[in-house]
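Collaborator request, handled under Task 6.
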Amino acid sequence: MVASEGSSAQGPLARRLTVLSGPSGVGKSTVVAEIRRSHPRVWLSVSVTTRAPRPGETEGVQYHFVDDAGFDRLVAGGELLEWAEFAGNRYGTPRRPVEERLGRGEPVLLEIDLQGARQIRGTMPEARLVFLAPPSWEELVRRLTGRGTEPPDVIERRLDAARVELAAEKEFDVTLVNTSVRDVCDELLTLMAVQ
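Structure tokens returned to the collaborator:
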């Protein structure tokens, strides 16, 4: 459900560039996968990461996987729209494909963390920033610990980061509470004016 909506720029990119952010474990990837499945008109940027693939992840679908040297080259060449480090790995959004699709008038969705959303706010202030919130802190903890894909120290770092991210919710234009993936997808698509 939509919890809040502040004022946002109404420039041409406001209807085309949407940033989805929120704490780890809130369901961003699940929402993105559902939008990818049901609305192929929305172009979903695939981030670059230095993180190793998780079971079931495919190069070019969930992420572009690169080593540290490859990531360094992308940063040095100005090829990333934004990038950040999280839980010991780096993540970034390739600049060229986003700019190409925006130039063609296609709706673009970025799934990025708080640091990246702040960078986008600085470089593309007309973008709409959407914060995906958990129904409760307890539910977020359950989701993160229930994954079973990360060691306890990584989970603890993610929980520490989640506290910081939840405190930054007011920096976003809109907050959606993830009580239902289908409802969040419908609300996000409405915000993006995608039918």
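The cover message to the collaborator said: "The first strand starts at residue 2 and ends at 5. The mean pLDDT is 87. Please let us know whether this matches your experimental observations."
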